[in-house]
Amino acid sequence: MEPHKINVFTQNPTRPLDVTTKSIGQLVDGMLYTGFQGRKLAESVQAWDNMLKEEKLTVMMGLTGAMVPAGMRKVIVHLIKNRMIDCLVSTGANLFHDCHEALGKKHYVGSHLANDEELFRHGVDRIYDVFAFEEEFRHTDHLIANFAKTLHGRRMSSREFIALLGKKICEEGNGDESIVGSAYKYGVPIFVPALGDSSIGIGLTIARREGFDVDVDQIKDVDEITRIVEASGKTGVVYVGGGVPKNFIQQTEVVASIMGADIAGHDYAIQYTTDVPHWGGLSGCTFDEAVSWGKIAAEAKKVQVFVDATIALPIVVHALHEKKLNDKRKFPLFIWKENGCLDIDFNTF
Amino acid sequence: MEPHKINVFTQNPTRPLDVTTKSIGQLVDGMLYTGFQGRKLAESVQAWDNMLKEEKLTVMMGLTGAMVPAGMRKVIVHLIKNRMIDCLVSTGANLFHDCHEALGKKHYVGSHLANDEELFRHGVDRIYDVFAFEEEFRHTDHLIANFAKTLHGRRMSSREFIALLGKKICEEGNGDESIVGSAYKYGVPIFVPALGDSSIGIGLTIARREGFDVDVDQIKDVDEITRIVEASGKTGVVYVGGGVPKNFIQQTEVVASIMGADIAGHDYAIQYTTDVPHWGGLSGCTFDEAVSWGKIAAEAKKVQVFVDATIALPIVVHALHEKKLNDKRKFPLFIWKENGCLDIDFNTF
Amino acid sequence: MEPHKINVFTQNPTRPLDVTTKSIGQLVDGMLYTGFQGRKLAESVQAWDNMLKEEKLTVMMGLTGAMVPAGMRKVIVHLIKNRMIDCLVSTGANLFHDCHEALGKKHYVGSHLANDEELFRHGVDRIYDVFAFEEEFRHTDHLIANFAKTLHGRRMSSREFIALLGKKICEEGNGDESIVGSAYKYGVPIFVPALGDSSIGIGLTIARREGFDVDVDQIKDVDEITRIVEASGKTGVVYVGGGVPKNFIQQTEVVASIMGADIAGHDYAIQYTTDVPHWGGLSGCTFDEAVSWGKIAAEAKKVQVFVDATIALPIVVHALHEKKLNDKRKFPLFIWKENGCLDIDFNTF
Amino acid sequence: MEPHKINVFTQNPTRPLDVTTKSIGQLVDGMLYTGFQGRKLAESVQAWDNMLKEEKLTVMMGLTGAMVPAGMRKVIVHLIKNRMIDCLVSTGANLFHDCHEALGKKHYVGSHLANDEELFRHGVDRIYDVFAFEEEFRHTDHLIANFAKTLHGRRMSSREFIALLGKKICEEGNGDESIVGSAYKYGVPIFVPALGDSSIGIGLTIARREGFDVDVDQIKDVDEITRIVEASGKTGVVYVGGGVPKNFIQQTEVVASIMGADIAGHDYAIQYTTDVPHWGGLSGCTFDEAVSWGKIAAEAKKVQVFVDATIALPIVVHALHEKKLNDKRKFPLFIWKENGCLDIDFNTF
Hints:
The structure is a homotetramer. Chain A is α/β, with parallel strands linked by helices. Chain A has helices at 24-31, 36-51, 73-81, 92-102, 116-121, 134-149, 158-171, 179-186, 199-209, 218-231, 243-258, 287-293, 309-323; strands spanning 57-63, 87-90, 108-109, 124-127, 130-133, 155-156, 190-191, 215-216, 234-240, 266-273, 296-306, 330-336, 342-348. In chain A, strand 10, helix 12 and strand 11 form a beta-alpha-beta unit. The longest helix of chain A is centred in the N-terminal third of the chain and has 16 residues, at 36-51. Chain A is globular, with a radius of gyration of 21 Å. The relative contact order of chain A is 0.16. Chains in contact: A-B, A-C, A-D, B-C, B-D, C-D. At the B-C interface, helix 1, helix 2, helix 3, strand 3 and strand 5 of B face helix 1, helix 2, helix 3, strand 3 and strand 5 of C.
């Protein structure tokens, strides 16, 4: 055979991964030269690492799936405390489960093969292979209802409500290991665009039926998160799953553009997902599709990794931890004004 | 070989499906004796058919995925007009796209292989293999903003807001082919638990930033849908996809139970989904898992079909149409009281 | 808003599917103007229909998954008898199960939630939600072993072996409803590239251990199927699942090209699959990827439908049946020569 | 709230994973107390670790997917050299790609978004996001053809053929980094049940058409691998993907049982898969389903992890490497007799 002319497609050989004693970060670096989702996982670490080196960039995370019952609570707390994320959009459920653990309750190692009728008879709720007590959940429901009652007559965004909840959790003394507590303490805003659709919403409904009214204003949520995008130089997004949190962050670019901002789509985009593009849903759609909408910049670094987040998050966040041990990052400090406006200062961490 | 003693597991042989000229209903009936998801699809038709024969049963549908862009709009309208569903919980997006088409705009047959940068330059948004004009979407955004301005100062549930929107669409003369229009006309309540997270929410945000305030009260949504469950004898659920609509309907049983109702879980449960149980999320979890929570009755008929809804809905609804041509069903008529309470009358259709 | 200039991307609006009394073929035709996998399913019918109108085209089907236990046996037989396929590449399992039913044994409607230890104690094997008797399977194993013993000392391709088995099944009087029987009768060659990996292989191993030797020559399989491609004007492929059958048919284009044929890839390509491209495997890879290899022609009609075959096959084959009731097709008649060569005559059906 | 009586389901709380500097093995150990697939991945390491501590246990691995192009070659070599597996059942493709790299050729880091028509014009084959030169592949095809010619007239199992190929690769000097080379050197038998269905099969077909005949006897494969099971005390299985290799190893228990062995199913079972149970196929079916068939012992440790192998293998094998640094394992030494029989000696490593 003739010696083969290397063409543009074949500049960069794969490097078979060899098995040696190495750190998590070294392992991930080695996976950059493999293929398929292993490489994508490594590329996501690289993209996140680069994102954190940017000037005036705000990192927004969308969080879905029962990540707290699945033991990912402190991983998210680590991201908040070390400002590897600056803003969190979550399902209500994850924050409910976070409060539940902050209040000293537990989730339990269970089995996905358990008999559900028997579990029901024992008052045990199943989340795939994690168990919890229904009675303890209801206890937390009522604590949230009681907390809500103290806010009777107020109208606020979910960000404001969750910040108050985080303050309360901190006052109870368990804040530092909690998502809502550490977010409150470290100034990371949390939005819950579908708060009613969760046990926090159940707590609020209990209060409502007893005549107490907290009005969580979902349109204020849209307004406020759009202000974050409008006031940030650049934005990077990290989606754990898809669902409402992904769409809610994606649509900020459209809202800001309609409002007249010169916005060209998020600048970095990472998603850990088990959904796929071909069902046509927003959860699984590619970031390329998002380019057509102007939600993601055409030139953005885009990494979609098809993997369960309970595998991805431990690896990725430990690798980032290793890479960022001595880094100082300029992160955004959000200053919310009385009139609803937002200023951002970028501080050195 | 000895003649084999038939045991309890082997009473019912599969019947190889033969290919003849037959109707859609006959095809589906034949699939009851096959295996895998083909059988499950047939079982879902059987379950839905049985559900509609029950006395004092309310059918609640959860709707996710871009079903309207994918051409499923009239299929949902058919379910509403023929009261094969009594209550709809939807993403905002599907209702936005429904209004968009009601206003004479189109979605277009596209390709999932299109170049998204080129689409962006042409102002074309891609939803997998469906296209639409961004400029036309923004036109509809502003029409919704203008409609919202007419409601300045009001606070209401998403059900009330969508009903007013449906009334408006009907007045414009295009209601009958529209989901929100026909739901208004036929008395089917529609809830949108994450209304902010959609282009309808964008319209509301435009109005908000211009100083007009419509307050869509998400906790009222939880309260109202719980009242439907509390006032119904039985409930059946049909989920197209999962997401917030599935969880929102599932949690009604928990809320009603906490509120003191003697509630034992939904009595029929059907889901068409492309998600799977093993990621641990609510979207893909089995109805068996839901039994542990008391969301689904242990003895309920439970059918989870793993299939794209754009395949399932056309087949299932045509089969139901064929089976129900001459049926009269007693469906619930919802009478919402001033004080927020709900009465249900079961009428013959 | 300004009237919008229609561009190249938006010539063809989607048409919401309305629900009326219609035939299966009409339903599928209507789905051509919807989106996502519903449209893809309709496109696959259109492509297959067009394929059958071509002159001098050979249709090759790859068949995986437990399609016979799942009740798809007569659907495949229909395709064979009506020459909607001309050549079948299958797992051994499907043909084993086909023989099993031809010999009067049954598969049973079961449940995917059964207790497997209890099934084991009752001698019942589970295939997801289909049951069968292990003892009956072993009876069929031994019948195949006995048949193999009659071929002691012979060496043949799997095509030749399966044809002899089909002849035997026909002689037993049950051939017409059987895949191997009808394929024998109607001259449709069947290849099983991994025959050892199935209960037919178990039967052959039983015979082997008792001193009888049938040598199923897998390299002769590669040679023979390549000759089909070499002697056909055009080829169309239909994959039910992926696995070895898909790769085995795909690689024929590469083999023929290496052997010097002027081959440019299959001309039509349809796949019904539940696998996805992003795991990097051949089963789920796109037909576009196959273009890079020269396995599929760049200009070929390519339709990949993400759906369980037990849903797709009933609908697609009934729709084809409806469309083809009065069609005459010129199908290939294979004349295998003593020297291993192949002539093809294209006959009118 | 009353202190809650701990019941049998809730003995073992989940432990939120905290992010600290830790080794890969420590990370995996921590994931044992989380949930979902993250926990399953950790359980698979624990199960594999335990398997290697058993006396007289043979570990059989099934390998599918384009693992070598994806950079997993040395990971498999590590498993062979350190006898973390004792027998390998593979697709032909992985061994072809292994030979390709052993012969100094490369795979390349590519993109899954490349234009496939353009790749075709440049002679570049795409495997999802990995590229290779078609011309170089054909070069390797011919080298295998030439090697096959040297075996003209011989009939052998795929195990024997691959061992001879491994010997040849070792003689060329590149054996130690190669799967077939190290397997030859370390006495790990490799079976390829569908050898024809791969580029190695293409090489054999080239030789065949030129008049050289190597007869790879697939029934001998079934016989030989069954002998491994018959001669082993216990067996553990590890499936990377599913496909033919999984079924081929699973069916050994059935064959051995039919042959009269007192066999009760494999004793450990691990699968890394992206397939799911509900399509009814063998690739994705649960190990519980396999219990009904007697392929897996009811009391076996069974772990099915839903994850791309290019993510799982690097983590799992590095964790095992860390745990096994100082372990001595008694591994099976296979002594193949002239008459086709097999003796196994269990040696200390």
